[in-house]
Amino acid sequence: MKTSVNRRSFLKATALAGGGVLFNISWLSATPVKNQSNGQQEFIEFNAFIKITPDNVIQIMSPNPEGGQGVKTSMPMIVADELDADWAQVLVKQADLDTEHFTRQFIGGSQAIRQGWKVLRTAGAVVREMLKTAAAKKWNVAVSELSTSKGVITHKKTGKTSTYGELAALAASIPVPENVSLKSVDEFTIIGTSVKNVEGKNIVTGKPLFGIDTYKEGMRIAMIIHPPAFGMKLKSFEGAAVKKMKGIIDVFKIKIFNDDYERTFFDTLTFNEVVAIVGENTWAVMKAKKAVKVEWEPFESYSFKRDAFGRKSVVTVPSGLESTKVSQEKMEKLASSPAEVKRKDGDIQAAFSTATKTVESSYFAPFLAHNCMEPMNFFAHVTDEKVEMVGPLQKPELTELALSARLGVPVEKIDFKMTRLGGGYGRRSYAHWAIEAALISQKVNAPVKLVYTREDDMTAGIYRSTYFTKYRAALDENNELTAFHLNTGGNPESPLYENRFPAGAIDNYLAEDWEIPSNITTGSFRAPRSNFHAAAEQAFLDEVAEAAGKDPIEFRLDLLKKAKEKPVGTNNDYEPERLAGVLKLVKEKSNWEELKKNGNPGVSAYFCHNTYAAIVIDTVLEKGELVIKNVVSAIDCGIVVNPDGAKNLAEGGIVDAIGNALFGELTFDKGIPQKSNFDKYRMIRMNEAPKNIEVHFVKNNIDPTGMGEPTFPPVFGALANSLYKTTGKRFYKQPFMDQIG
Amino acid sequence: MAKFNLKVNGETRRVDVEDDTPVLWVLRDQLNMPGTKFGCGMAQCGACTIHLNGVAVRSCVLPVSSVGAQEITTIEGLSENGEHPVQKAWLEHDVAQCGYCQSGQIMSASSLLYTNPKPSDEEIEAHMSGNICRCGTYLRIKEAVKSASKSL
Q1: Confidence of residue A103 (pLDDT cuts 50, 70, 90)
Q2: Least Cα separation, residue B5 to chain A (angstroms)
Q3: Beta carbons of A652 and B135 less than 8 Å apart
Q4: Which of B53, B78, B103 corresponds to the end of one domain?
Q5: How far apart are CA A475 and CA A473, in angstroms?
Q6: For A168-197, what is each residue's pLDDT tens digit?
Q7: Is the pLDDT at A14 greater than 50, yes or no?
Q8: Domain at B130, CATH number
Q9: Which residue is closest to A202 within chain B, CA to CA?
Q10: Domain residue limits at B44
Q11: Residue A428 neighbours by CB distance under 10 Å
């Protein structure tokens, strides 16, 4: 595979499907970097990703934040493979936010590997080519006669060898090649092998890796107090007495965004004014927080300007104190009324009027809190000269822009260092707490670490929306699915993906949706929208298959065959063959036919975030207690960069989804979240996890796609379908646990 | 404020803090030992697990004044270089995803194995159910505990 390289910035402006994200990797001139030695020897810098010492230590920068998805291991693996480095000699380092040399330093959408694939490979291949050119020069031989392996260049004819380190200084003076060859898949030596987490040892020895571990001389600790209910705002507070408490430095109000600020897509926040408490240590601040007297009042409806990736709008936040019961009733009502049509194929009315059988079911899911194990936190030190920011966040570039606007400081003066994230799952895309930390630091004129308590974290909003979908299906006299109708929506966001399977496989199809404005804030949550869309649809398809008297896997495969051979519509957002591929693999690996006789299997398959996943779950009731005996998954994410890492992510996604399906729920009473810590918010624990999980990958040479999200959505449906076998009841309403037994 | 002489990882550490300060914050704020994590502040998630005389306790609800002469062991003291059998088993099974809860998981697991070197699956599940992992690494944790058990 040939790829061409622009001398100054390669892979510039590569438009990518799905995100429209541009690459623009500028190359640094190859000069030795001072004060960055590894032991005795200086690093020679080749490009933004690669530095090599004369004694052949290879430093590879990991551009994206690491939140447990494994990119700090897998992204450098890709660079190292094309470089033909010896992984044992690779040092991985987390890059800071550096918009000049990297793009898309994001966690989101399971896109790091997919969108980084070509950039990372080229970064490695270019340097390998430069090293080979240097060796050819030095030995006066042809480049084509040289081979590389594990950080060593060999000239077979003469038997000459040299390490990359020995050639680095010479190689760095060689012009960056215009074209480089990338390896073919069978030439990979690191990609496709299981490499252990590069931070493994630091994690098991408790090294300070996380934002909350940040410590700087003179650092103060800050916490915030936010309104207790959605729909409320700060009226007044009394901080004078608290300021006199031991260890307390200041108590004041901060306003996070200015009224005229045009918020980006990820500038969601719930409470724009909060009370800040600053002290010398955490415990003093925690105690003071309880002593501050604060008055709240309901707010009137208000509006703000928004620019969501170029889509400009004015968002109106409704007033009122919302209760879950009321919003559920509203959703049920809306799902029974005509809504905005998002896709229409054929004529569903005609198909329903001539149907032999119809199936109709409605599905519900509640708000969910992210509950990252590391509560929200950030370090900030704002001075007149610069703004130093350290902490865990998923979209540092956007946070930097928001902070620049708020402080009136150019981005050049703001420095973001990315720590490991103690979980993200979408929550850390919305970094209002980073801005809060900066405002607090500015006010007290000191370095500050802002830490949310668990209660602050769980009750600050930005949840997974609550959703409702009503499905209808029509079957003809041959039990063929002739019409499919879904009316779906959410409070406040609709979960609809109108062009996903089974769209394209059914002649008469109607998808319509609606949204209910709410002042309960929501945002990305592991596989946003898909996590419910898949849950409901995959449970409904099971009911339809049963009504048709068909095996649920064969039923899906028949539909996929039609979607491939005679697709309905042109805008179908999946490849039928790959979706069928994971279904066939999961059928084989789960011993489906046997399991149907001996167990209680539920199946599900879904495509989102560019990866295909099928799940079979087998459950049983033992003495009235639910036991999840086994989960078999089949995944098509193309080339699997780090198989054991990908397996770990799949296992985690499955356990997390089972936990959320069984227990996940946040309800509201007059705007007040009814859970604020893990005593009430039930998280899955080891004794409730599946007894076994199998992960199988489809083997192919397709460019890799992500693993952070795609295994999560299909689990909910597979679990509901297995629970139906186990209990005889259909599960329409998440969370399921209270309805079992 | 009161002065306490705490035995932490085999050393005596002198701190001057309020009586009711949880050991978690003494470790993190006063002794700059951030390996012990803050998760919930109410002994529900296990992220802050340490050993008191070898027994797993939740440091977020343990007032410093109640410790006395008991030996505190934190993740940093289990083995600085990751040589403890439980840490080694965690690396062997590449357990961690985000890794935030793993200090607490390891401290819970090592405490279990001190008192019950050959736990059954059910015993592991019962003992470890006080530690939450949102990444969902429970199966690897269980396997790692079993590996460590074999190596003891």
Answers
A1: confident
A2: 19
A3: yes
A4: B78
A5: 7
A6: 999 999 999 988 999 999 999 999 999 999
A7: no
A8: 1.10.150.120
A9: B82
A10: 2-78
A11: 32
